[in-house]
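In this supplementary section we document a worked example of the pipeline. Step one takes a protein sequence of length 221 as its only input; no multiple sequence alignment statistics are reported here. Step two produces a three-dimensional model, which step three serialises into structure tokens for compact storage. The input and output of this example are shown verbatim.
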Amino acid sequence: MRLLIVEDEKRLALSLAGGLTAEGYAVDVVHDGLEGLHRASEGSYDLVVLDIMLPGMNGYRVCAALRAAGHDVPILMLTAKDGEYDEAEGLDTGADDYLTKPFSYVVLVARVKALLRRRGRAGGSPQITVGDLRIDTAARRVFLGEREATLTAKEFSVLEQLAVRAGEVVSKAQILEHVWDFAYDGDPNIIEVYISALRRKLGAPRIQTVRGAGYRLVAGA
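The serialised model returned by step three reads:
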């Protein structure tokens, strides 16, 4: 899943990005409200972590603009302020949740996961089944029949991108966009490493290579 952090405190933003990346998310970071609005409007994000006090455009206005334009991406607002009025204002502009600084990183991750689970329930079952392969996107667990397969965070994220489009060809560019962050400029062939690992753990026939196009997840033989 791909997250956007809009936070002008650069050390905090980079710390959050590092932690969420370790959780298996692809994370983009911007430090300005206007850039955050542009990126959230143009990008295919699963959740936005949005500070209120931002240069260019404050978080209230960014949130209100996104909602007015019809974007339903979950928004978790961050602020150094405290008080019921601020929280009410944030939620009135369309935010889904609110966290006051200073906060525990563990609490932030729990809120992020809760919002993503909520969105998953609204959009359908958080479980994806392809043959005897079952992927629980909320719990981030994978089962082959009754046996659980142990995947790393990145392996799970690559598999998830194939699973949500099971039977279709998914290009390397599409996987990079959703599993690695916006600024990734490394070798796109890194995906082959994760595909090989998934084939070892899940069975090679499940992931087909479509030469020149990408990969396709199918029911195992």
